[in-house]
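Justification of resources, computational component.

The compute hours requested in this renewal are based largely on the per-chain cost of generating structure records like the one below. Each record pairs the submitted sequence with a full structure-token output. That output is archived, and it is also reused by downstream analysis tasks.
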Amino acid sequence: MKKILGICCSLWWGQLDAQNSDTTGVLDSDSLHPLEHLIISDSWIGTTDRKSSIDVTLINPEDWRSNRALSFAQSLTFLPGVSAQNTGVGIARPVIRGMSGQRIVVIERNVKQEGQQWGSDHGLELDMFTVDAVEVLKGAVGLMYGGDAIGGAIRILSPRWSTGKWDSRLQVLGSDNNQERSIGFSHQQKWKGKKGGYVQRVFVAIQTKKSSDYRLPADSFTYLNRTLPLNQGVLNNTAIDEQSALCLWEMIHGYRQLHHLTFQYRWFDQNSGLFPGLVGIPTLASVTSDGNFRNIGMPNAHVNHHKWILQAEGRWGNVSHALELALQINNRIEKSIPHQGPYQILDGGDEALSLDLRDVQGRYTVSHIHWEASQFEVGTSFQKQWNSRGGFEFLIPDFQKNATGTWVIWNRPLIKHSGQWNGGMRWDYASYQMKGLSQWISNNGADMLWQPAIGVNKMFQGISGSVGQSISTSNDWHWKWHVGRTLRVPQASELFVNGVHHGTFRHEQGDQNLTTERGWQWDGMAIKTHQDWVIKCSPFVQYYNSYIYLSPQATFSYLPDGGQLYAYVQHPVWMAGGECSLDKHWLPQLHSDVSVEYIYNYNTATTLPLPFTPPLQLKWGSTYTHQWSSRWEWNCQFQVRYVAAKNRVDRNEQSTTDYSLLHGGMSLEYHGKDERWSCLWTLNARNLTNVKYMNNLSNYRVLQLPEQGRWIQIGIEFKWHGQK
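The structure output for this chain reads:
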């Protein structure tokens, strides 16, 4: 009866083991033992988690370094099922199985990254220097993180600590396509207390990057049947100036890491130019370069992000407690010359738009190991947001958001097989208080009052959850499945946005009548291991009776230089697809992998697909590693990526042709005496054949602008290690 009751009232727990098993190897193996699966933390784990019923993939530091691109999101695209929605090369956000934005969360120490949910041209406020490794979770993980994670999650893992008392690292990178010059520096220091089993660790990292306007494999582009030139293939005003920092302090106490206290501060600052054609109708004067490829002119976007996290964990007997508190401050300022047209906003100055976001999050969980090694967890979370706007343009009004969630999670090992049941249920509540806004605009010289937002209060609530299973058999097969009922509260941008959105060249319009997004999801996985090869297939089927998405309309904005109108709508939608991959070790030094991914969706109201859906993709790569001696190691890799044509598109959405890309890289590492220091030389290249192609997820596609051409990055990294 207990088993039946537990399964029936559960709605998915796939995340418990993925979240709670990652403390393995946090401390030195010679002094402290790893914590058991109970404590929720974010430290080093293995490459896969076969106990969880969801698809979990770890990108270790070596893979992260080898696939480094010009943005955090683009560096993830070598994984099957992962793409990036980008604005140029420096601004991008991840896409998992066709979902992004409000359905994909980025998690750091169980805290959601906030500030990029206003639009697809708002990238993640994260840099690659201060990230050591990440975990990619495909499928619904909303039980732990709310409806914002029904498409998946990306977890930033804590830095891997060395065995010495201190560890320093210096990185310098340079690129030829856009004359990028990047430098990163990090320093780790660790002290071991001799009394009471205390261990303290400090991690500090800083980074700065400057990039000039980048080049395209084209000398012109076409918009509205008008051809405009590109000087030497350079996209004018796309330079980036970026700085970031990370400070982390940890204190651990107890022979089995019974108590854990962490304080973290992360800062990110980016000033990026926006191609002038994205703000207003492109003209010859606006797209012509002034010859200075490093200056950032008009229009531009400046983003400044601060994040503080306090995390405390403790274990007494079979019961664990975990508390996370976080504050995020995100300020975004977009500048441009006031628009000219029949409708002229009367406010002066060059500050087109400012968004000032304050976000406070809290989370508390209690976990307990009970009969037959089963795990049971109860948790609650809250979130409060304040958003203030400014500038002569309007995108989203001032608002406040209050949200809370409560969940129950259950995890029970299987008796007859190696594996476990996962299950849980969650209740969510959210409310918005939006202020109205009125602006005076000029209509061909006649003043008129425009009211883009009306004050309103909205409230949403509901229950979600799922149940899943993970099984390992004796014939080297491993199976996973989970099914659940999902729930997602509409975001403020989906409800209240109404205005021209810089970086996307469109007028976005929300709908205050949107209801809670509900659906059903089923995910499966089959893994076959045989000697030197592994086959993995991950199908999924989803149905949403009230799916919210941004739909391109057949009309243009009534605002000056507003571009095409995009409106948030809500329709029943079917989705299906998956990924299949084969990993083969030909030799101990030679490894190859091939994967295919496909997504099919169907809007039952329009009989058309959803916009911004990634096409069929094939990826094939090989890696060769050679150990010359105990001190020298050489690595070489390449990847061929084929992206099919995208002709099945939504109404008023542009199609794209197929293309193939060749990526590659090499590294050479030298280890000094006693492994006290090392030096690493890297060479990474993308689009080696300089192919001209259109990415159907790019915001530049509306202007018929191709993606970046050949990009080669050279880097050098020094590491020093202290004595144990």
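Residues 201 and 278 are 46 Å apart (CA to CA). The first strand starts at residue 55 and ends at 59.
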